[in-house]
Structure formats: structure tokens, C-alpha cells
Amino acid sequence: MLAFTVLFSGWISFLLNLLFAPSVQTNLSLSEACFSTSQTLNGLAECLEDFTVLKGTYNHFTYLEAQPTVTQRDAWFKATHTLLYTDNNCTTSILPSAIQDIYAIDLFTDISGKSFCVLYERTVNPCSKLYEKGWGFAMVPASRAGVSRLIHISAPHPFFDGETTVEAAQIFSETGAKSLLVPGRMRNAFYAPSPCVQPTGSKSSMYYITDPAHNDQEPFFDANLAVWDWQNEQGGCPSSSCAFIQFHGKAEKTCSEDTIFLSTGLSRGSWYTDGVDRPIKRLQQKLVHAFHLANAPGKISLPSHSRCILTATKNVVGRYINNYPTSSTQYDVCHRSASPDITEGAFVHAEQNAFARSDKARGAWVRALNDTFASINV
Ligand SMILES: *[C@@H]1O[C@H](CO)[C@@H](O)[C@H](O)[C@H]1NC(C)=O
Ligand SMILES: *[C@@H]1O[C@H](CO)[C@@H](O)[C@H](O)[C@H]1NC(C)=O
Ligand SMILES: *[C@@H]1O[C@H](CO)[C@@H](O)[C@H](O)[C@H]1NC(C)=O
After folding, report:
1. Which residues form the signal peptide (predicted)?
2. Which ligand 1 atom sits closest to the C-alpha of 22?
3. pLDDT per residue as tens digits for the range 284-331
4. The overall pTM is greater than 0.85
5. Ligand 2 atom 7: the closest Cα is on which residue?
6. CB contact set of 250 (below 8 Å; sequence gap of 6+)
7. How far apart (Å, rounded) are the C-alpha atoms in residues 341 and 263?
8. 290 lines ligand 3 (CB under 6 A)
């Protein structure tokens, strides 16, 4: 009987081990592993992009499950805002507890010794190898001394817009920019219409609900607001040194004359041609110069000098920045378009052909941005 009991309890503990050992997770999730497998910031960005929720992945239920709750959305906003304030104190412990089992904050040091603080999703589904949530990632230089320019870089359309994620990461790093934002879902991750804005014209086309440039319910939008708030807390976004730059990729046949088509989110008009100094006007000239030096082909234009229709007037981040210069809890970016009278020009939308977003053009981009935005003394 005693022998039996010993044997029996041995079996019980064996079974308990089987049941509970795997939950003592010492293994890194797939996204956490990116931090040890990547050597450069480009590599890290590519590694994190690999888990992006792909086109057509969501249905009504899985989309709702992946969306943040009200509490999580608030925590996500705070997490991004806190990230902007990090200064050699990059750790998950500064994350709001409401999202600590979904998100992490980790230090990444590239082979050249530059360090970054990264907010990213740690929950990757082991079967699909896609993010469970897909809210995106954000990063800043790990110390304030590592920031050279108050420019904020983002790439809202991972995979869909070609290699804009890795492009944005490289340009963020090489210009010494303050922040980088990339969502964790493709714009067409759920083929349902955006409840926020609809495209003008053709009835058959639509903006998708998961398109963060056209739906203010996407977490990428909140992250932009958190960065905008931080920038305002530094005394605003001066034209000489600050901007929010969104990198996009266009099809070769769309606006085929333009290598890069820049817009502030306003369509044609005297705003682009009057005598007022705006970031986008300087950037256009510096890009023309830098691409010329690099012997790169094509035209780099503003809405005043191109027939291209990709002016981003319905971009919700652009509308917010153009309409709500001081941070505001009352906004209506779905219905209120930007007004040229109050638009300062902090929002810069860059549509690029394949060449402009390829690694061949990175040097020219970095030089042009460096020459457009004054570096700051910390
Ligand atoms: C870690 O992962 C390996 C391979 O998937 C697995 O065999 C091992 O049991 C895991 N370890 C823990 C502590 O979960
Ligand atoms: C990190 O350090 C900076 C500078 O000391 C401080 O202002 C900031 O509040 C700290 N952040 C957190 C989340 O502790
Ligand atoms: C751009 O600016 C950064 C930060 O000031 C600097 O390290 C880098 O060398 C500059 N690159 C170019 C091409 O001007």
C-alpha cells in the first residue's frame, strides 16, 4: 500500500509537471528573440515586421478581439508617451500594468553601438506567427543625448507600401530622429470599410477599417497623438527643426512622373507657393538637390507642381496635426478636413516610387532631411 502511494504520488507529480511546466515560460517569444538575432536597426525592424497581421486575416470577431479595450487603449497611449520620456531607463517596468503581458519595452544596441528603446508586442501566435494584437511598435534613441533632430518618422503601411518599414527605420537611425512608429497590421488585414473616412469618387474602392491612415480607431493613431503631445510638452513643433514624416510607397503607374510626391495633407493651393517658410518646401528643394547629387532620376514635387492626386487630405494623422495645433481631447478627424489657414505644416506625407524607397536612395533621403531640419543641442 505504501509502495503504491509513493508510486501514485510520483505519477501525480509527473502529471502535474507535464501540465504546468510549459506555463513557466522561460522561452522568448518570437518577437522578443528579434533582439538577440538582429545586428542592425534595419534588421530589428524587418524582424518585427515579419509578424505583421497579413491581408484578409481578420473577421469581425477576431478583429474585435485584437482591438484594445478602453483600458488597454489608454495604457497603449501612456506607454508610447512614457517611451518618449525615456533617458537611459529603458525597461518593461515603465509599462502600464494593463498591457504588461502583451507588450514589452527593451533596449536594442546595434553593431555600431547606437542604442534604442523599443516598445513592441511580445505576443506572437506560435501557429500563424502573426501578432495577436498588431498595434505596432515604437522606438526612440535610448538616451536623450542620442537625439539630433526633433523629427518623427512613421511608416503606416507595412508590406503594402513596399520596404517602407526598413526605410523608415534606417532614416530614423541615420538622421538621429526622435521617434519611429510602425503599425502591426497591414492596411487590408480586415476587408471591412473604415467607419471613419471614405475615398472620394469610385464607389467600388474603399479604405479598410485596419488602415491606420484612414481610421482613428487604430492604435497607430493614438501612438501619433502621444508623440504629438510629447512634442507639445517640449514647447511645440517649430518649422525649422520639427516635423512628422510619413513614408508611403505608390504603384509605379500611379503618378508615374513623380519619384517622390510630397504633401502636407492639403490639396493644391497657394499654401505651397506663398512666401511662408514651411518644412515641406525646404524638404522638396533639399531632396531635389540630394537626389541630383546621387544621380537619381525623376521628379520630386509638391501638389502645386504635379497632377498627382495622392495629397493625403483624408489622412487622419495629418488632419489631426493640421487642425489641432495644441493637444486636444476634442477632435473629429473623420469629418473635419484640414484648413490651410491654420495649417502650420508639421505633417509631411511622402509618396515614393520603388527607387525612392529602395536602399539606393537612403543616403539622399538622410542628407536631405539633415539639411532641412536643424539639429538640436541637448
Ligand atoms: C522552450 O521551447 C522548447 C522548444 O519549443 C521546448 O522543448 C521547451 O520545453 C520550452 N521550455 C520551456 C521552459 O517552456
Ligand atoms: C527616465 O529618466 C528620465 C530622466 O532621468 C526621467 O525624466 C523619466 O521620468 C524617467 N522615466 C521613467 C518612466 O521612469
Ligand atoms: C545626419 O545627421 C546625423 C545626426 O546629426 C549624423 O550623424 C549623420 O552623419 C548625418 N548624415 C548625413 C549624410 O548628413
Report:
1. 1-26
2. 14
3. 999 999 999 888 877 999 999 999 999 999 999 999 999 987 777 788
4. yes
5. 85
6. 161, 261, 310, 351, 352, 353
7. 16
8. no
